[in-house]
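Structure ticket #2291
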Amino acid sequence: MKVRPVAIIWCAIALHLLWGCLLLINDRALGATALHAFGGMPRLITAVILFGVAAMAAVGVVWDGPRTLTLALMLPQQAVLSISAMSAVTAVIDGRYGDGVPRPWYFILADQAPVILTMVLHTIAVVQLHLIRVPAGDLRLKLATVEEEAERLRAKLAAQRERSR
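Resolution: structure written out below.
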C-alpha cells in the first residue's frame, strides 16, 4: 500500500481548522500545550492565523501551479506545526503541560506525540511533494525528446557512413 504524502497535509489542515474553531468558541483553548506558544496573542488573531495557514496549504495541495508557489503556500503551515511541536517538546523536557500542570515526561510525551509526529510527517510530505517528485508527464516528455534526438543522431550517422563508402 502506497501512502500519498498529501494525506498528512490534509490531516494538518483539519487539525488547524479544529484548533481555530476551538479558539473561536473559548480562549481557554490557548492553554493547550500545542497552542501555548501562541498564548501571548489574542485568540481571534491566532484563529485567523490557523484558518489562514490551513487555507493556504489546501490551495498548495490542490493547485497544479509552479512548485515554488505551492511550496510557499505550504511553508506557513509547516511553521505553525513547528511552533506547536516545539511547545510539545518543551512540555516534555520541563515535565509541565502548557497550562502548567506537572506530569512525568513520559506521560506528556505519550500525550503530545501526535503533534510532534504530525510536524515530522508533514515535513517529509512537503519534501516528497516539492523536492523529489517529478510529474510523470515531465518524464514522458523528456524521454520523448531524448528518443527524438537519438533517432536524429542515428540518421546522421547512417548518412555519414553512406557518404564514406
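Closing remark: DSSP finds five helices and no strands in the chain.
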